[in-house]
Amino acid sequence: MSDHSWKNIYNLSDEQLNNLNKAEDLIEMMDLTKAESLLLDMNKKVPNCVPVLNVLAHMYGRHLSDFESAIKFYNLVLEIEPDNAWARDERRKYSRYMSYD
User: Fold this and answer.
1) Are the CB atoms for 87 and 77 separated by under 8 Å?
2) What does the pLDDT look like over 12-41, one tens digit per residue?
Protein backbone atom coordinates (compact mmCIF):
# COMPACT_ATOMS: atom_id res chain seq x y z
CA MET A 1 0.00 0.00 0.00
CA SER A 2 1.18 3.49 -0.78
CA ASP A 3 2.22 5.89 1.98
CA HIS A 4 0.53 8.99 0.53
CA SER A 5 -1.20 11.22 3.05
CA TRP A 6 -3.82 12.42 0.54
CA LYS A 7 -6.79 10.41 -0.57
CA ASN A 8 -6.27 8.59 -3.86
CA ILE A 9 -9.58 9.71 -5.39
CA TYR A 10 -8.49 8.67 -8.89
CA ASN A 11 -7.75 5.09 -7.78
CA LEU A 12 -4.25 5.21 -9.20
CA SER A 13 -2.18 2.07 -8.94
CA ASP A 14 0.99 2.05 -6.84
CA GLU A 15 2.97 2.05 -10.09
CA GLN A 16 1.11 5.14 -11.32
CA LEU A 17 1.60 6.89 -7.99
CA ASN A 18 5.30 6.05 -7.97
CA ASN A 19 5.74 7.22 -11.57
CA LEU A 20 3.83 10.43 -10.89
CA ASN A 21 6.05 11.13 -7.88
CA LYS A 22 9.13 10.32 -9.96
CA ALA A 23 7.97 12.71 -12.71
CA GLU A 24 7.39 15.49 -10.18
CA ASP A 25 10.85 14.87 -8.70
CA LEU A 26 12.38 15.04 -12.19
CA ILE A 27 10.59 18.35 -12.79
CA GLU A 28 11.94 19.73 -9.52
CA MET A 29 15.44 18.66 -10.61
CA MET A 30 14.77 20.34 -13.98
CA ASP A 31 15.24 17.06 -15.84
CA LEU A 32 12.31 18.03 -18.02
CA THR A 33 13.09 15.70 -20.92
CA LYS A 34 12.89 12.61 -18.69
CA ALA A 35 9.82 13.97 -16.88
CA GLU A 36 8.06 14.67 -20.17
CA SER A 37 8.89 11.22 -21.52
CA LEU A 38 7.62 9.51 -18.37
CA LEU A 39 4.41 11.55 -18.24
CA LEU A 40 3.64 11.12 -21.93
CA ASP A 41 4.19 7.37 -21.59
CA MET A 42 1.82 7.31 -18.60
CA ASN A 43 -0.75 9.29 -20.57
CA LYS A 44 -0.44 6.89 -23.52
CA LYS A 45 -1.03 3.86 -21.26
CA VAL A 46 -3.94 5.44 -19.38
CA PRO A 47 -5.40 8.37 -21.33
CA ASN A 48 -7.48 10.93 -19.48
CA CYS A 49 -5.82 10.38 -16.09
CA VAL A 50 -6.44 13.76 -14.49
CA PRO A 51 -3.34 13.83 -12.24
CA VAL A 52 -1.06 13.04 -15.20
CA LEU A 53 -2.77 15.63 -17.39
CA ASN A 54 -2.44 18.26 -14.66
CA VAL A 55 1.27 17.60 -14.15
CA LEU A 56 1.86 17.68 -17.91
CA ALA A 57 -0.01 20.97 -18.21
CA HIS A 58 1.87 22.47 -15.27
CA MET A 59 5.24 21.36 -16.65
CA TYR A 60 4.53 22.73 -20.14
CA GLY A 61 3.23 26.04 -18.86
CA ARG A 62 5.49 26.79 -15.92
CA HIS A 63 8.76 25.13 -16.85
CA LEU A 64 8.79 25.00 -20.66
CA SER A 65 6.74 28.13 -21.47
CA ASP A 66 4.83 26.01 -23.99
CA PHE A 67 1.54 27.71 -23.24
CA GLU A 68 -0.29 26.11 -26.16
CA SER A 69 0.46 22.60 -24.85
CA ALA A 70 -0.39 23.64 -21.29
CA ILE A 71 -3.78 24.91 -22.46
CA LYS A 72 -4.35 21.72 -24.45
CA PHE A 73 -3.79 19.54 -21.38
CA TYR A 74 -5.87 21.79 -19.12
CA ASN A 75 -8.66 21.57 -21.70
CA LEU A 76 -8.51 17.78 -21.43
CA VAL A 77 -8.75 18.01 -17.64
CA LEU A 78 -11.76 20.31 -17.96
CA GLU A 79 -13.47 17.92 -20.39
CA ILE A 80 -13.24 15.25 -17.68
CA GLU A 81 -13.83 17.55 -14.70
CA PRO A 82 -15.67 20.69 -15.80
CA ASP A 83 -15.69 21.98 -12.21
CA ASN A 84 -11.93 21.73 -11.74
CA ALA A 85 -11.30 25.33 -10.65
CA TRP A 86 -7.52 24.96 -10.49
CA ALA A 87 -7.28 23.75 -14.10
CA ARG A 88 -9.68 26.48 -15.23
CA ASP A 89 -7.64 29.21 -13.49
CA GLU A 90 -4.35 27.91 -14.85
CA ARG A 91 -5.79 27.63 -18.36
CA ARG A 92 -7.02 31.23 -18.11
CA LYS A 93 -3.57 32.40 -16.98
CA TYR A 94 -1.80 30.70 -19.89
CA SER A 95 -4.44 31.89 -22.34
CA ARG A 96 -3.60 35.45 -21.29
CA TYR A 97 0.08 34.78 -21.96
CA MET A 98 -0.83 33.57 -25.45
CA SER A 99 -2.75 36.75 -26.19
CA TYR A 100 0.43 38.80 -25.61
CA ASP A 101 2.47 36.95 -28.23
Assistant:
1) yes
2) 999 999 999 999 999 999 999 999 999 999
Q: 44: buried, middle or exposed (CB in 10 Å: 19+, 13-18, 0-12)? A: exposed
Instruction: Provide the residue count of the chain.
Output: 101
What average pLDDT does range 71-99 have in this prediction?
94
User: By the 8 A CB rule, do 27 and 54 touch?
Assistant: no
Q: Which residues, 6 or more positions from 74, have their beta carbon under 8 angstroms from its beta carbon?
A: 53, 54, 57, 87, 88, 90, 91, 94
Task: Please say if the pLDDT value at position 6 is more than 90.
Answer: no
Q: What is the pTM of this model?
A: 0.87
- Domain residue spans of the chain: 14-99
Instruction: Please work out, in degrees rounded to the nearest 5, the angle formed at the alpha carbon of residue 86 by the alpha carbons of 4 and 53.
Output: 65
Q: Which fold has domain 14-99?
A: 1.25.40
